[in-house]
Amino acid sequence: MVSAPTRFCLLVVAATLARSELAVAQSDDARSDQSAVPSGISGAVVRPAAPAKEAPKKPVIVLPELTHFEHADYPAEAEKSGLQADVVLKLTVDRDGNVTKADVAEPAGNGFDEAAKAAALKFKFKPATRDGVPIPVVIPYRYSFTLTAKPGAAVPPPTPTTGNLLGGVRLAESNTPLAGATVTITLADGSQRQVVTDETGSWRLEGLPPGKYQVRVESPGFQAVENREEVGVGEETEATYRLAPVSEGIEITVQGERPPREVTRRTIERREIDRIPGTSGDALRSIQSLPGVARPPGLAGFLIVRGSAPNDTQVYVDGAQVPLVYHFGGLSSVVPTELLEKIDFYPGNFSTRFGRVGGGIVDVALRSPDTQCSGPYGSQTDRKGCFHGMAQVDLIDGRLTLQGPLPVKGWTFAVAGRRSWIDAWLKPVLESAGSSVTAAPVYYDYQLIVDHKTSSSRFSLRAYGSDDKFRIIVTDPAAQDPAFGGTLSFGTSFWRAQALYEADLSRAVSSNSMVSVGQDSVGFSVGNFLFSLDNVAIYARHEFGFKVASGIKINTGLDFAISPYEVVVRFPQPPRPGEPDSGPFAARPPKESHEKGTVFRPAWYAEAELQPTNRLRVIPGVRVDYARDSGHTDFAPRIVARYDLVKGADPDHPELQARRTTLKGGVGVFYQPPQFQETNPVFGTPGLTSNRAIHYSIGIEQELTRQVDISVEGFYKDLTNQVSRTPSATGYSYGNQGLGSVIGLEALLKYKPSKRFFGWIAYTLSRSVRQDSPASAQYLFQYDQTHNLIMLGSYRLGRGWEFGGRFRIVSGPLDTPVLASPALPALYASDAGAYTPLQAKAFSSRLPLFHQLDLRIDKRWQFKTWRFSAYLDIQNVYNNAAVEGLAYNYNYSRQSYQTGIPIIPSLGMRGEF
Amino acid sequence: MRIVMSGGVMRLATFLSLFLLGCGPDFDPPSELHSLRVLAVQKDLPYAPPGATVNLQMLWQDASPLAGREVQVAWSPPCYDPPADLYYACFSDPNAFGDMVAVQDPGNPEHTSFPVPLDIISRRMMGADASNNAPYGVTYVFFAVCAGELTLLPPTSDATSFPVGCKDTTGKLLGADDFVAGYSSIYSFDGISNNNPVIKGFEFRGQPVADPAVCLKDDCLPLGGSAPAVDFDCDDPEHPEQSARCVPTCADDGDPACTGYAFRPTIDKHDSANQDIDEVSAKQLGRTVGEQMWIDYYTDAGGFKSPVRLLNDATNGWNDDYGTEFYAPKTPGLSRIWAVAHDNRGGMAWSGITLKVR
Prior knowledge:
The complex is a heterodimer.
Chain A: H1 19-31, E1 37-38, E2 45-46, E3 61-62, E4 65-68, H2 76-81, E5 85-93, E6 99-106, H3 112-120, E7 124-126, E8 128-130, E9 133-135, E10 137-145, E11 163-171, E12 182-186, E13 192-196, E14 202-208, E15 211-218, E16 225-231, E17 236-243, E18 253-256, E19 264-267, H4 270-275, H5 283-286, E20 293-294, E21 304-305, E22 314-317, E23 320-321, E24 340-346, E25 361-366, E26 372-374, E27 380-384, E28 388-394, E29 397-405, E30 411-420, H6 422-432, E31 435-453, E32 457-474, E33 486-504, E34 509-526, E35 529-549, E36 552-571, E37 591-610, E38 616-627, E39 632-646, E40 661-672, H7 676-679, E41 691-703, E42 708-728, E43 731-751, E44 757-771, E45 778-780, E46 787-798, E47 801-810, E48 814-815, E49 826-829, E50 834-837, E51 845-846, E52 850-862, E53 867-875, E54 883-888, E55 895-899, E56 904-912
Parallel strand pairs in A: 11-17, 18-24, 22-25
Antiparallel strand pairs in A: 1-2, 3-8, 4-7, 5-6, 5-10, 8-9, 11-14, 12-13, 12-15, 15-16, 18-19, 20-21, 22-23, 24-25, 26-27, 28-29, 28-56, 29-30, 30-31, 31-32, 32-33, 33-34, 34-35, 35-36, 36-37, 37-38, 38-39, 39-40, 40-41, 41-42, 42-43, 43-44, 44-45, 44-46, 46-47, 47-52, 48-51, 49-50, 52-53, 53-56, ...
Chain B: H1 7-21, E1 36-43, E2 53-62, E3 72-75, E4 79-80, H2 98-102, E5 111-115, E6 136-146, E7 149-152, E8 164-167, E9 179-189, E10 201-204, E11 207-208, E12 215-216, E13 246-247, E14 260-266, H3 279-285, E15 293-299, E16 303-304, E17 308-313, E18 317-318, E19 324-327, E20 333-343, E21 348-357
Parallel strand pairs in B: 13-21
Antiparallel strand pairs in B: 1-2, 2-5, 3-6, 4-6, 6-9, 7-8, 10-11, 10-14, 12-21, 14-19, 15-17, 15-20, 16-19, 17-18, 20-21
């Protein structure tokens, strides 16, 4: 079949005029200038004076016009194969309109090029002109070869040469279409094409040459998505993208080991806190999943840090001490997670900013109120001044939060409250166990924050508090000790009113102040025994930071604790950990102490942040504490250093790219004043000095990939001057002759939170021992835990689903066994009508290994103006009967394991806007 | 001020944490007697002034299948004012227990007495302190009930190891089911005394149990020790009241699934002995404080709904509902019930009855 080009394209987008032809034309113009007139005697040519200069006229150029088209012979093989093609030629057209040269600019192959060239050389043009004068030109020309059907036969559709790319954009959580998202593709030549999704979230790009394209989808407030898509000839490639909101709100930072001005940063985002299984989203419980923190017994809320007693670790809220961290010793923490900005956790070797404890520090900071405005479906905007609220319920309590702007410009507020309802279901349980319930266990807490921020300062007022109480009458006293019968009441409450001010006074000077006033009340009574503490708690702290020179900054501050108190205690003298059981309390006359006084403990500290090179950072410091109640002054020097062996993007180690390697270490002295009962004239011995600990630590941090870090740290604590006691004729005589040590290794392999996943593996190996005096035998510390391995992770499945798990393997708890047969295991204390155990060496028996799996699943639904989420958190999924202690029969002749929590599902729901 | 939870409060927190959520085994309750047991040791002077002589009387029971065997009962010499009031500090001189092994009162082995030294308080050099804690002295008397022969044990490194053992005829040391040792502590204050609770009788199924079916204190001796229970006729026409103490067997053998038969010792809350003021606490608090009192129930066949009941709460006062319910065993026979009333200052009293299960 003979084909003829049915169409041709004359491509004259940019006329290319060879500089030489144009130059020739110009020179021709010069030679043809006839305006000179010969005159004068000498034969000079007198030219008329040059006319006054005027704007040069633009030449009028007319492109060549094809007058004769030559049909090319269709390449036979190509015709048989049904191929079509375009050949782009460069044609040189002379002044007569003849094509003197044809070059192939874009070949098509398959014989098309030769055929097009041969035909083009026979074209005839009306020549191009400039100001009416014919000129030679070079022009591009596209010669198309197209197959046509025989007359009468069906015309095959034209063979497509391009493809289309289309699809949709939706919200990741709810699968709702997202309008207004921008889809950008990058072509092979680097150019881009863009399209915006319509109201149905759909988009379409047509006429794309075949090949692979980088596609980027983005929308304000959402995390951008990129992918590579392939377009085929004549095909439509469909792709749907799902965007997730940018992680919002507060970042809870749990920082380990280093002083606050320079810490080993173990960042746990809010997302991690909310999702760690087994913690019900409690931020402070998440600390128990870090290395260096031992597992407490049962659900107790103790923090056992690096082999230290729970009493040796102090929790602060914005620098003010709080008497209790958890409601009823372990149910939930007294400050809800959603009001936390960060948690700084220092397991040891902390800054001179903190003192009066020898173990660890947990410093909780309340957040600034959130007034960031959200767009539809939770997308973030740059606007501020909006309100946010939240309501949450689970099996234990319910809570409400509201935050937003105040009418006065620059001021914001947040208010929150929580109340438990365990009283609703626990009351019948207690009554069936033989108790008359006067006040079922109930707790509540409340928080109010008012903030004002400028570019260089921040002022914040806070008020928060907590209250726990229950009161029952136990009409069936415990057979093991009938002293635990009758009226049993427990109550704790505290409140704080705080003011904080932070400001950059100049480029080199910063100031940080905190004042807190509050009240604590703790009461516990059973039968005719009681413990009651009421005190006013006043804390004040002020710190200045001075940047003295480049690489030198000095921080210095004052830290006051003032507390008028009244304590009443009526109890028989209890045994201390490590001492044999002294018998039931039931028939022992109580000792009473009624003490009033004022604790006054000022401290001064100073610290220098030295950075002699960009790799080395050294922080020496000193803290001086005075305690008026004991009359002693404690002087505590400390030093911490970090050295970046390999900095990120180190030119000396290009093969490591951005894999930072940091060595770190520190040594410091830490003092902890004796406890109240140790210096009390009735129960203890006045005049004791502070317990002392020297912390040593050395470690390494290594970035393995951008997402994965590993840190390994060894620590040693030398405990001296520890308060201990010996029996005496009049009771007990206390002294500072106790000793101890803790040695251990912590490792943390962490996958930093990405779009889909976060997780870590934490392992601690440690040994903690004590000695009551240099001459006495050493024994394992009560909470010693040789091995502690935690593996946890959480994965976003998409569409609002997230699934997580935590698995723990921990050395079993220590126990003090009774004497083994044939020795008697117990004596009958006839006055109490109960047996008292005769015990072997303290903490000489370790119970079986603990292991437990917790799982959690979350689902979130994002609606246009609000969000709903629900979770199911199952503790102890495979119902492992973990041994928490030993249970004995009435005369201790038989024993059995006491197991911990069974499988416990916990369901929670939250709505927020 | 840092609030540091005392050891006791910390133990309570851990105890509650485990109690509320933990699971433990089901051992036999201490109220069900299946072995050699000491139920009570009463002192005629629960608070004994310096210079007084204190008499102690023991109630014990051999509820083992071998009841009727020979049992040795012995007392130690008194141990005065051990350091820090620790009973096990008395073990530091194990030779002091030699008399416990050697000396017995064949006539009334369940009884002993000792003198309280005149300087029992002053020797401790404890003066009254600002918190009004009255100075005191304390005496420990140890006892042993052995279904074999008592023997002095060699010293060990364990500070709490009791220095006396009980061996059988082959010389093998017997365990806790055949050998019971314990102690009674007697406090001495200047001018502060204490009375034992007073039990006047017994009620069973709401009806008073007539004398002589009720044993009170010494009268229980025939019903204690190795003496078998005294049988009676439920259908005796001359004593129709005895039928009230007859109950049918229960296939669930003393379980709460059985029918419960209410009973209680008769304790008059208006009796002055039962309304003692805890003078030590009163002096400390500056106000009247009652005693903490409770009742331990025991049986050698069957079970109870609540084996320990509150009798008087120092804060809330008297608990009228101090009784409990008896669940019959599955085997017919005689079943004895004892009620031992305690106060929190070493005072106690007991009473008991015999039931017939058929």
